[in-house]
Automatic annotation (TrEMBL):
A Pfam family this chain is assigned to: HATPase_c_2
Protein name per its UniProtKB record: ATP-binding region, ATPase-like
UniProt keywords, alphabetically: ATP-binding, Kinase, Nucleotide-binding, Serine/threonine-protein kinase, Transferase
PANTHER family, per database record: ANTI-SIGMA-F FACTOR RSBW, ANTI-SIGMA-F FACTOR RSBW-RELATED
Domain Histidine kinase/HSP90-like ATPase per the UniProt entry, residue ranges: 16-133
InterPro entries: Anti-sigma-factor_SerPK (IPR050267), HATPase_C_sf (IPR036890), HATPase_dom (IPR003594)
GO molecular function: ATP binding; protein serine/threonine kinase activity
CDD domains: HATPase_RsbW-like
Lineage: Bacteria, Pseudomonadati, Chlorobiota, Chlorobiia, Chlorobiales
Keyword Mitochondrion on entry: no
Species annotation: Chlorobium ferrooxidans DSM 13031
TM annotation in the entry: none
Length: 137
């Protein structure tokens, strides 16, 4: 049973990021997480949110993106849910490949993977959820 679960639902595209930022900041402060972990979590969830808006919801301002944070013991579970079909993180192009080095996008999941302990995508008929696990510091 989760010790703490907080959720925010955002509609309106990338312009709603500031609300997500404030939500994450409030949560991490209430848990006493370090400033470095809070900054890393902000970066990872910003990338996840932007990907959800752009790729999952195809930039439709009418579709929502939700984020939940659940602290359980020494673990933090973060989810970002959109209305899209989802993706396989292992099938994305490697941003470190010299052929991809000068692409304007394609680094978000790489950044998320570098911060999260684990990453998984769950699909349902209502959308997809990026599930991220962290050990806060």
């Amino acid at each position: 049973m989760p010790v703490c679960r907080h959720e925010i639902v955002l509609t309106g595209g990338e312009s709603q990021y500031s609300a997500l930022h404030d939500f994450i900041a409030s949560f991490t402060a209430s848990k006493g997480y370090s400033a470095q972990f809070s900054d890393d979590l902000q970066l990872a969830l910003k990338e996840a949110f932007i990907n959800a808006v752009k790729h999952g919801n195809r930039e439709s301002d009418e579709l929502s993106v939700s984020c939940s944070l659940c602290a359980e013991g020494n673990m933090l579970l973060a989810t970002i849910t959109d209305c899209g079909e989802g993706f396989n993180p292992e099938e994305l192009p490697d941003p470190l490949d010299p052929h991809n080095r000068f692409q304007l996008s394609g680094r978000g999941v790489y950044i998320i993977k570098s911060i999260a302990e684990s990453i998984n995508v769950e699909r349902s008929r209502d959308g997809s959820t990026l599930v991220l696990r962290y050990i806060p510091y």
